[in-house]
Amino acid sequence: MVFQKFTNNSYSLLWLPSLLILLSSASVNGVEQKKFYIVFLGAHPVSREGSIESHLNILSAVKQSHVEAKESIVYSYTKSFNAFAAKLSEDEANKLSAMNEVLSVLSNKYRKLHTTRSWDFIGLPLTAKRKLKQESDTIVAILDTGITPEFRSFKDDGLGPPPAKWRGTCDKYVNFSGCNNKIVGAKYFKLDGRSESSDILSPIDVSGHGTHTASTAAGNLVPNASLFGLANGTARGAVPSARLAIYKVCWKEDGCADMDVLAGFEAAIDDGADVISVSLGGENSNYLQDSISIGAFHAMRKGIITVASAGNDGPTMATVENHAPWVVTVAASGIDRDFHSTVELGTRTNVSGEGVNTFSPKQKQYPLINGMDAARNSSSKDNAKFCAKGSLEPNKVKGKIVYCKFRTWSTEAVVKAVGGIGTIVEYDEFQDSPETFMAPATFVNRSTGQIITNYIQSTRSPSAVIHKSHEVKIPAPFVASFSSRGPNSGSQHVLKPDVTAPGISILASFTLRHSITSIEGDTQFSVFTLMSGTSMACPHISGIAAYVKSFHPNWTPAAIRSAIMTTAKPMSQKVNKEAEFAFGAGLVNPTRALNPGLIYDMDEFGYVQFLCHEGYNGSTLSILIGSPVNCTSLLPGIGHDAINYPSMQLSVKRNTESTIGVFRRRVTNVGPGPTMYNATIKSPKGVEITVKPTSLIFYHTLQKKNFKVVVKAKSMASMKIVSGSLIWRNPRYIVRSPIVIYSS
Ligand SMILES: *[C@@H]1O[C@H](CO)[C@@H](O)[C@H](O)[C@H]1NC(C)=O
Ligand SMILES: *[C@@H]1O[C@H](CO)[C@@H](O)[C@H](O)[C@H]1NC(C)=O
Ligand SMILES: *[C@@H]1O[C@H](CO)[C@@H](O)[C@H](O)[C@H]1NC(C)=O
Ligand SMILES: *[C@@H]1O[C@H](CO)[C@@H](O)[C@H](O)[C@H]1NC(C)=O
Ligand SMILES: *[C@@H]1O[C@H](CO)[C@@H](O)[C@H](O)[C@H]1NC(C)=O
Ligand SMILES: *[C@@H]1O[C@H](CO)[C@@H](O)[C@H](O)[C@H]1NC(C)=O
Ligand SMILES: *[C@@H]1O[C@H](CO)[C@@H](O)[C@H](O)[C@H]1NC(C)=O
Ligand SMILES: *[C@@H]1O[C@H](CO)[C@@H](O)[C@H](O)[C@H]1NC(C)=O
Ligand SMILES: *[C@@H]1O[C@H](CO)[C@@H](O)[C@H](O)[C@H]1NC(C)=O
């Protein structure tokens, strides 16, 4: 058995700037000789007791004694998979991985974490049709930082007891008074045993991230929600009647440990969740070394769909995370709303800045100064231009608005700390995710900055005022610059991300345990707040997956994903030049996803064929399915990618005449029959795409039909992406698959 060593990078929740400061990847300190490992074993013994006993026996073989083994083991996974987590030296880990009984030893890494108007924007109005009974039988599991149970988003008015299939439990914990009929389960996992002074060993949410994602997926309707009047409206989740199961696996200081994430998956699967939502991630390319990929595979085997965020490392290419084909990978888009602040200069000229500024000015005008002119001394002038900490002379900025160039986030906190009344920051990059300020402030672009500096120079006593932000309408959708991009580092045959959902300035429930920016000195506390990140996009799709499931309780995870992808609204390469690598199949369209016409379905066996085709060693696949696979004896997956995926991707080799990909697909008619679908192909320049047959006739519902798509592409310049598509159309349905051709 190969010992699989991990780099010690940490995982994080996938959200953005200000709050990231507080959660930023606290990796394990390297002081300890012993680290945590997850040891995967073969098939399950017959009983849970038998499993635990066998874990101890195996571990005893590398420890001095049974007692020592007992002390070092921290968790036994006995339900979906057979594994244990324990504290080991590298030598012990090596010895274990050489044992026959042991499939694989993974070192425990720490991952990181990566909302009203958004529903109307994507077309899921308050009045959308619902199957309320089925919706209330649907359980969305959230693996995150916990929950704030007392908020209105999680009241259980009108909800009966959880569905009979629910096996989860909920105890009373510190600062957590227990569950209700909305939050039907709550657990936490902190297997490393390290206590954190800033977090609480309880499902209670200290950071606000988990509360935000849970309320986005399945929060109740809360009228008149806003952030100090901004983004006001009715806050709600996709499925307001669905239940929530909370698994706290991410912690304020340490982030999200693989062993906790796996324990969360195992519990959610065993408890009977329908959808698992994971707004967290970390770099990984191997599907057998990634806790989210492994957990999601076991969920899929039980018919549970896993939805995960794509990551916040865009717009750099090949940064997409959570890219296993059995996971729905979600990119973040902007909606048609942005927040601007008017800056009124003393000359009565108005200019406009961006960002979320909730403060209303108390005076008509304030004196205005350029940070450069407020330097402490001549040597701090360079830093004062950026209003860097320690560079400003308090006497010069007291009571004034200060103009600074951007260098780091939260410049306004520096200005406030030395007595400044407001901050105008010149910031010319990536203005598509508005920053929330802890004190009066706004971001202006370079040309506006020029107007302001010219004005400051042109008058003896310059003055200005920054008004509270207001909403403006902007063109949308577009994929956020921060949203991670393809291509998929795990497989060049699977297009990732899959689909796009709103993830910029989403209003949802938060926490009152700290201010909305969590920057020291911030006085803004709010039940609702605006957050941005693929973390916020993910629960939109988790909720929509639950919505689709409430209409089609028997659909497989692959079928639900297919419905969401083939009905998505196509987006444009004119807006995001990375095309499908930015937006996947496009912007989700929830009501159309209920009736996709055709689906690209797949079961566990389909994924195993794919993995064999990708070159995974059949014996290591037992991590996913509990016993070794003989890839040679398996029916080979067919075609270029050996997977029945709703999108197609062809990587073109450079310096070759042409590259050909033959994609084999099978669609299932989920609409009424008899019916006939005709194909429409869009081929980009330099690419020839054909489909055979060009018509599919179905006599009845659930009938399946095979077809093949041949993509022939000429050599392309490197880093070029072109997009085509295949559409199956009948008078009622449009079933669209993106086809991406790129050269790396
Ligand atoms: C697969 O793994 C087994 C067990 O480690 C090893 O014996 C075998 O050689 C591997 N096969 C391939 C094709 O790498
Ligand atoms: C949490 O519970 C502890 C113990 O009951 C209590 O002392 C503390 O004040 C509570 N903290 C919060 C933030 O509610
Ligand atoms: C709506 O919220 C605002 C601010 O939170 C409050 O002043 C107002 O009274 C509320 N309106 C209603 C109808 O509840
Ligand atoms: C938001 O508040 C404004 C001003 O109070 C009001 O005109 C508007 O109707 C509100 N919007 C919603 C969706 O409630
Ligand atoms: C500038 O903006 C303020 C606040 O919105 C507004 O009251 C004022 O009339 C505007 N002035 C001009 C000259 O447009
Ligand atoms: C700078 O911002 C102003 C105000 O929002 C806008 O009108 C202008 O087009 C922007 N300039 C550039 C170069 O983006
Ligand atoms: C200038 O200010 C900096 C702090 O920004 C300080 O460290 C430095 O000693 C000062 N230099 C002089 C000459 O006063
Ligand atoms: C796998 O299957 C092939 C073909 O059926 C067979 O020749 C081979 O012996 C099998 N390998 C193992 C390890 O069972
Ligand atoms: C599909 O193609 C057939 C044959 O070309 C044609 O008769 C039929 O009207 C087409 N159907 C649709 C929905 O376009």
TrEMBL record:
GO CC terms: apoplast; extracellular region
One Pfam family assigned to this protein is fn3_6
- Any signal peptide, and if so, which residues? 1-30
Which intervals of the chain form a coiled coil? Answer: none
Active site annotation, chain numbering: 144 (charge relay system), 209 (charge relay system), 535 (charge relay system)
Could you list this entry's UniProt keywords, alphabetically sorted.
Apoplast, Glycoprotein, Hydrolase, Protease, Secreted, Serine protease, Signal
Residues in Subtilisin-like protease fibronectin type-III domain copies: 643-741
**Matching Gene3D superfamilies:** 2.60.40.2310, 3.50.30.30, Peptidase S8 propeptide/proteinase inhibitor I9, Peptidase S8/S53 domain
Enumerate the spans annotated as Peptidase S8/S53 domain.
Answer: 136-586
Q: Per the UniProt entry, what are the Gene Ontology biological process annotations, in alphabetical order?
A: proteolysis; response to symbiotic bacterium; response to symbiotic fungus
Q: Does the keyword Protease apply?
A: yes
Molecular functions per Gene Ontology: serine-type endopeptidase activity
Taking every annotated instance into account, which residue ranges of this chain make up the domain Inhibitor I9?
A: 37-114
Quote the InterPro entries the UniProt record gives: Peptidase_S8/S53_dom, Peptidase_S8/S53_dom_sf, Peptidase_S8_Ser-AS, Peptidase_S8_subtilisin-rel, Peptidases_S8_3, S8pro/Inhibitor_I9, S8pro/Inhibitor_I9_sf, SBT
Q: What does the similarity note say?
A: Belongs to the peptidase S8 family.
Describe the function of this protein: Required for arbuscular mycorrhiza (AM) development during AM symbiosis with AM fungi (e.g. Glomeromycota intraradices).
Protein name, entry field: Subtilisin-like serine protease
Q: In which organism is this protein found?
A: Medicago truncatula
